[in-house]
Structure formats: C-alpha cells, structure tokens
Amino acid sequence: MVESIATKDMLGRSGLTPVDQAVQILMDQLNTIVPESETVSLDLALDRILGEPVISPEDLPAAARSTMDGYAVRAADTFGASQTMPCYLNITGEVIMGEEPVGEVEKGCCHKIPTGGLLPHGANSVVMFEHTVPVDDTMIEIVKGIGEGTNLIQRGEDISRNAEALPAGHLLRPQDIGLLAGLGIAEVSVFKKVSVGIVSTGDEIVPYGDNPLPGQIRNINSITLAGMIKRAGGLCVDYGIVSDKFDIFFPALEKAVQENDIVLFSGGSSVGVRDLGEQAVEALGPPGIFIHGVALKPGKPILMGLSKTTPVFGLPGHPVSALVCFDLFVLPAILKLSGIKNKVELPPATLSARLSRNINSAPGRRDLVRVKLQYDNDTWTADPIMGKSGSISTLSRAHGYFTIEEDSQGVSEGTNVKVFFYQ
User: Fold this and answer.
1) pTM assigned to the model
2) Domain spanning 65-153: CATH superfamily
3) Using an 8 Å Cβ cutoff, are 382 and 341 in contact?
4) Residue 13 has pLDDT above 50, yes or no
5) Which of 8, 41, 159, 326 is the least crowded, having the fewest Cβ atoms under 10 Å away?
6) Cα separation of 392 and 158, whole Å?
7) pLDDT confidence bin for 342, thresholds 50/70/90
8) Residue 215 has what pLDDT?
C-alpha cells in the first residue's frame, strides 16, 4: 500500500488525509503515466488535445495582402499629401480577389485593391478609400500621406514557415482549428480521450427508471458521474449495477480496470463492517491504495488507489459526497491523463456574498457548504442549504458553495464569504 499523509479525526481515529495533501499525493502517483495519441482529421479535432507540436509548413499569409479597401501605391508617391495639398495618382489596374495581380504599380500610379487582396508588384502600402478623392475613372487625389507597409499584412506576419503553430498539450478551440485550416493541415495528432469506467455497487441499488421496493434506492450516481465525465472531455463506460458480494464485484471491477484509463465505483468506500472496496482494490495488484479517507465534509470516505497505471476511485455512495469528490479529485486526474497543458487556470467564477446564518465546523477538516444566492438592495446574500450527503436536491437547488478551511471552527452570520459557482 502506498503511504499517505494522514491526520486524526475528532474521535482520534487516524487515516484522514488533508484535502490539499490528498490532491498532491494523487498527482504524484499519476506523474509517470503517459497518455496515448492518435491521428484525427481536422474536422474532428475540436476540443481534442494535441499530442505533439504543430509546425507551420508554410508562411501565413503566403504573400503580402491588403487589410483595407483602397489603393495599392508606392508610399513615396504620397509623402506630404494633405487635404490642402493632395497628390494625384493614375489608376492603372485593379486587384481581383482570388486572382494574382496583373501588372506592376509604377511611379505616380496605383491599383484599386479590396481587403484581403494580394499586393501587386511595385506597391509597398495601401491608401484606404477614406483618404482619397476620385477625380475621374482614371485618377484619384491622395489627401493623407502614408508610410511604407501601411494597411498591409506581410508574408509570414501571421505565422512563419517552420515556426511552432501550436504546442503539444494544447486544447484545440475553434480559432485553433481555423489557424490549422489556414496552414493547409488536414489532420493532427491528438491524445486519446480518457476512458472512465463506472461500476455501481450495492444490492439495494436499482436502475433509475425502476420503481424501487422498500429499502431499494434508484441509481443516481452513474448518470450524474457520466455527465461530469463527459463535461471533462472523457469517455464514459458504464458497467451497470454490481452486487456487494466480493466474488461478483471484484471481477466486474477487474474488467473495468483492464478496459479503461480510470475507474470509479460508488458505494463500498465507507469504513464499516464490509470494506468491500478496500479489499477489491488491494486484490487488483500493486501499488494499491494510497488514500482512504480525507478530512472533508461531505466526501470523507473516498478511497484512491492504483492498479499498475490505472487510477481507481472508490466514491461515497451518497450522491452529494460522490460529486464533491469528483470535483476535487477525479476531475484533476482526468485532466492530468488527458495530456492537457494549456487549460487556462483561471479561478472559478465567484462572488462575495453575506452569509445569512451561523455555520459551525469541526476543526481539522474542510467543509463545503452549499448555498443559494439572493440579491436585494445591492447586496448578495448566501443562504446555506442544509441537508445530508444523500440529499441530491441540495445540489440542484444550490447556486454554489463556500469552503470552511481546516483551521476554522465555523463562520458567523454577516460574514462575507467567497461563493464558488457550480458549472
């Protein structure tokens, strides 16, 4: 079993690891796992993560282009031009979009050019229409002089040949796809999506579409966890509801581990009479369990282990606890194994709100308190939504949550708290 850093709970029991330390231990365990890559066509690359750098095969643009509607000119021909002393240029040609320019711009002459048009030979800048006055069909007045390179994007100015267009680990956004299309790149190497297997355990669990008998519970966790996995960019494989009996549960868990990059099972992680999850993860093989219990409410009984290179998470059976543990531990693991390196680590969307009542907390653990926000008289108020970890409606009704850190015994009414929004 991998050693973890643990603290003691209020009753003096050991085994509870502080949240931040648990995340660090988890990340350390995943450092040696290298994501696999595959090649996909550009039209299927959106929201995928580059497995290797993309090197530009050419200059973009391939030739100088106008950034304005106007006239391609020799800049020297416009020097000193003004409203009171304009210069005059002969119109000797026109640039047509999609065609190579014909002819050369000679001294004292210009070519009409549209935005995006290729700069004709002899010209080195573009005068916009707003700074010209037509004399007739063959001549214009220039009423403002310009310098060389004005209103142009030069060859390779966007990106030059052999430059790195995008780095490995980059999450491909629509604008990135546009850049690659502009470079003529039809396919890219991307990391394979992280496959996450879900095993629901519990003889009392029935499919959510069934009518449960007394003592039975509909399967909430599988469908909610599947949604979280998909939002994180992973692929979800649901192995259904499996009996609490070890000889049935273990083969299902073993199959999931063999077929996926990460495995989650819900239920069976609480420290109690039947330590089914702990027994099963240890039986999967080394290195085994490295976390069993964190100083967190809700979510204390989470189990984390590793079977060779496959992370295995035993999530609490209560839906709220399971989703809290997903956010804090499983999501970082999915992102880590996806190979992503450019996900902007902006702080989550938050706002400051005044707490509407006192909230007590036990020292030595981190509490996540769900709240509903109300706005009145230019003030946001955070109303705690009290409920047990089995109350899924508390998540549905909440706008977000605030945290009470391990060194605090609570937060007083009227205190401004930072509320983190649920996505």
Assistant:
1) 0.81
2) Molybdopterin biosynthesis moea protein, domain 3. (2.170.190.11)
3) no
4) no
5) 41
6) 50
7) low
8) 85
